[in-house]
Amino acid sequence: MAHHDPNDPSGEKYSQPVEYRHQDGPQHAPDGGHGGRNALIVIGLLGVIGAGLFVANEESHHSSGGRASAESSPGSHEPSTSISVPSTHRANSASSTAKASPSKSRTSSSAPSRPTSRPTTHATSVPSHNPVTPTSVPSHENLRLEVARTIVLGFDAQKTSLDDMVQDLRATHAGGAFLVDVDNSSGQGNELYRGIHNALPDVMLMSDEEGGNVHRLTYPFSPPSAQQLGAMTVAQVRQWGMREGAVMRQNGVRWDLAPVLDVDDGSGTGAISALDRSFGQPGQSYAAQSANIAAKADAFAKGLEAEGVEDVAKHFPGIGHALPNSDTDSHAAHTTVTNSDLRPYATLAANGDLGGVMMSNVFADNWDSSRPADISPAAYRKLDGIVGSNVLELTDDLTAISNYYGLPPAESVAAAKVAGADMPLVDYTSIGDFERAVDITVSEEPVAQIHESYEKYLALK
User: Fold this and answer.
1) What distance in Å separates the CA atoms of residue 427 and residue 400, rounded to the nearest whole number?
2) Is the pTM of this model over 0.85?
3) 41-54+80-122+136-460: CATH class
4) What residues does each domain of the chain span?
5) Pair 452, 393: CB distance under 8 Å
6) Which of 27, 335, 414, 436 is positioned for an S-S bond with 441, CB 3.0–4.6 A?
């Protein structure tokens, strides 16, 4: 049946009939595609590496077998039992508790922005995969459509058919999609991504294509892990980025949720070390890992770019030495951010090789110990100071926040948008949850911030 909203006098909020069906998403995804590198280019590195870049003292030079000296003991890293949800968008102050004026745009960041090289569509125009005439709906509905277009929906490949994915994307007007729980040995991901792309070519398809054990697509070769890439030359890593990027492009994926910029704590456990997801090498200090990660991740991003695929560096501000790190899961963990965590982001931004950045679900205790980075205004302010405010800023899968902290999906999406996320990622549950997320965001996120994220989406989709 069609959904009707008493606040929608036109009755045209969503033109597609929607069956109300619920679907259980996975407990968490490891992290979660339209090219557009030429849309946003960093034009200077002076401000990127300048004021406020590194906020933590550099850790001692440890080998990867030990913990950074900035970290606390495991006992001090117990997850918070409740989360303080931000009530306004990111502030202009260095304080994690400061609040900004609603009229303050995020583009005031001191770091250089990447200007658009193609015209930006006016914020009231509506992309086409489920067309609605802009003049036929109230301005409030234009805001709802802008918010909807900046939400990225996750679909469980084992529980959702291709037809249902396409229907849900049309019904919600969501601007992006990613897959979880994919059989990456059977070609399932390739088939689903191609199917969505053929039906809805303007939807930004994103996928975790890190190589090694973390990938959704099936390749005609074995993609090496980040740790294996980290031992190669820059030229070799770039070639691998091109090879993998070509497969992504052929299957409609234009956004790779990679490379991983996290250090490896050498424990052999946790979300990074257990799966060899870091470019850092065994025996390297964190400082040495950071330099190697920056060089090899930059080369991988250049390879992707050569094939028309955008990179999304992750997991800001760093989960490689977060605690606790058991069960290969970084969610509900805490970390103390160091220079080595941040340096690779500055390098990729200064080189113009940063399509987007994915925030993590960890608590960065020396920035904001009350909220995960995904929904922390302080974390987004720090990120803006490093990479500039025109780089697309995404969240990790916000389903984890719902699962671990009891914040419902709709509230998680709204909290991330208000904190500063351009495009939050969340598992799809129902049209009702999606509309609630949009409604809360429209009521709480400043209008200028909604427009800004939407225009980023238009420039890059």
Assistant:
1) 10
2) no
3) alpha beta
4) 41-54+80-122+136-460
5) no
6) 414
